[in-house]
Amino acid sequence: MAGMNFCFGHCPTPGSDVALIGQQHLLLTRRSRCTHRNTVLKLYNNHLPVYRNQSTTELQFTEDFIVQRVKMTSNTITVSLPQLAKMIDHSLLHPTMTDADVIAGLRIAREHKVATACVKPYCIPLAVKELAGTDVLVCPVIGFPHGNSTTEIKVAEAIAAVKAGGAEIDMVVNVGKVLGGDWEYVTAEIRQINDAVKAEGALLKVILENDYLSDDHVARLCEICTDLDVAFVKTSTGYGFVKQADGSYNYKGATVRHLRLMREKAGEKVQIKAAGGVRTLDDLLHVISLGVTRIGATATVAILEEARKRGIGNEPVEVSFKPMKEAGETSGY
């Protein structure tokens, strides 16, 4: 993914840091690196929708940092319907889905020309058949949903999935090894699977399952995936349920805080996939503004129908969106 620098001042400044706090952007640039005291905001652009933040700016100088706080007064983004569709992996992963359910979902993916149909491994031949003659790719999951298979099994499953017709592979990390701090194991596993998938001509998305992890775990995984040249890091499976205080099980999925953290810690070439909780057009537009380039969704039809109702068509138009809540419970894709 190419990076573009936008300079608020006289010259580009290497080493600028971007921290996103609440509904404000806090841009920090070390004075020692910026003789003109300007701030550079790096935006990620891969021929994707253009995010515009209508804002007022207040500069505040401190001894060590130049702080530019950009207060958001409205949220707009320029998008087209085809761009939105190609940001969606239509999810067909619920364990109760019959073949008839999967076929119906594949026809939705085909009709709406999404990026991929995300399927369980045994459904790959069915997906290949139903999506033949389209540009909708097949995206199988492996080690799903808990990531507990051995590395050897995950590698074999990934290779088999690509050979059967998978173009993008979504793989779950070994969460227990992450929580235990066995980074050598975690790194070696991701490396082996990524190498195997790339050798077969496909790409890998690494599912972190953020609900189980601390911010430090999420950051470290993003850094590992960057070092290994993984194509995507993904927030969640949609099935990482956590026991709540009342004894029930639920999960948060893709949160604003985690998406900001992932975009900050992952390298420029690593894309972000948000899965779990992105159910409306406003949700999709907001996560795009955070640097997300793909979502996993079952609400594909509702999202794209709402886009049409709001005047989004084949040509890019500017639309406003309501930001997602900073935190909150969700339940599935």
UniProtKB/TrEMBL annotation:
Q: Which GO terms describe its molecular function?
A: deoxyribose-phosphate aldolase activity
State the family named in the UniProt similarity comment for this chain. Belongs to the DeoC/FbaB aldolase family. DeoC type 1 subfamily.
- What function is annotated for this protein? Catalyzes a reversible aldol reaction between acetaldehyde and D-glyceraldehyde 3-phosphate to generate 2-deoxy-D-ribose 5-phosphate.
Sorted alphabetically, which SMART domains does this protein's record hold?
A: DeoC (SM01133)
The keyword Cytoplasm appears for this protein: yes
List GO terms (cellular component aspect). Answer: cytoplasm
Record has Cytoplasm as a keyword = yes
UniProt GO BP:
carbohydrate catabolic process; deoxyribonucleotide catabolic process; deoxyribose phosphate catabolic process
Q: State the InterPro entries in the record.
A: Aldolase_TIM, DeoC, DeoC/FbaB/LacD_aldolase, DeoC_typeI
Cite the entry's keywords alphabetically.
Cytoplasm, Lyase, Schiff base
For this protein, the record's Pfam families field holds:
DeoC
Q: What class of enzyme is it?
A: lyase
Protein name (Swiss-Prot/TrEMBL) = deoxyribose-phosphate aldolase
Species name for this entry? Aspergillus fumigatus (strain ATCC MYA-4609 / CBS 101355 / FGSC A1100 / Af293)
Q: Could you say which EC number(s) this protein's record lists?
A: 4.1.2.4
Catalysed reactions, semicolon-separated: 2-deoxy-D-ribose 5-phosphate = D-glyceraldehyde 3-phosphate + acetaldehyde
